[in-house]
Amino acid sequence: MVAKGELKHISSTDITINPALGTGQLQIKDIHYVSLDVRDAWEFCQILDKKYLSCKKNTFEGWLELAKKYKWIKYD
Asked: What pLDDT score was predicted for residue 26?
């Protein structure tokens, strides 16, 4: 069952990352027509990471710098 209003369930094909919008900004292709995929938060984060890295100007090093800056990575 998909919870109403869960961003993590929007299909990966309906989510884009537009570098012109700035870091951390997502874009939904057409908010009136989206497909849903049931997934957990971890899977959603992996999709976002892959989409970020698929942009030509983004690198893993740049992603890692942001991850450290915003404390996305936990060191136990």
From this structure: 87
